[in-house]
């Protein structure tokens, strides 16, 4: 995470300017925060690669959760059918 030097004028050109090239501009009409990234001062390719790996990991986890949910849904459906079959055959 980028540090925000507030008292050192060598790095700061605004109240939220960081030496890595991020800055924010306050918007008086909403609570949104806008960031401007200065590609000269930051290594964006490494950051993008790291985020891509994390997104891939999350996608794999979501697929595993979906697979497990389908398996358990099928298992429960079969269990209900078997239970209903036992109840029906016991009452005959």
Give the class from helix and strand content and strand pairing.
Answer: mainly alpha
Distance between the termini: 70 Å
The helix/strand order is EEH
Radius of gyration: 28 Å
Spatial sequence of strands, sheet with the most strands = 1-2
Number of strands: 2
Shape: elongated
How would a textbook summarize the main sheet? 2 strands, antiparallel
Measured by DSSP, the beta-strand proportion falls in 5-15%
What is the chains' assembly state?
A: single chain
Count of runs of 4 or more consecutive helical residues: 1
How would you describe what is shown here?
The protein is mostly helical. The chain has one helix at residues 44-90; strands at residues 22-26, 33-37. The protein has a two-stranded antiparallel ribbon. The chain is elongated. It starts with 21 loop residues before the first strand and ends with a helix.
Task: Please write out the topology.
Elements lengths: L21 E5 L6 E5 L6 H47 L2
Antiparallel strand pairs: 1-2
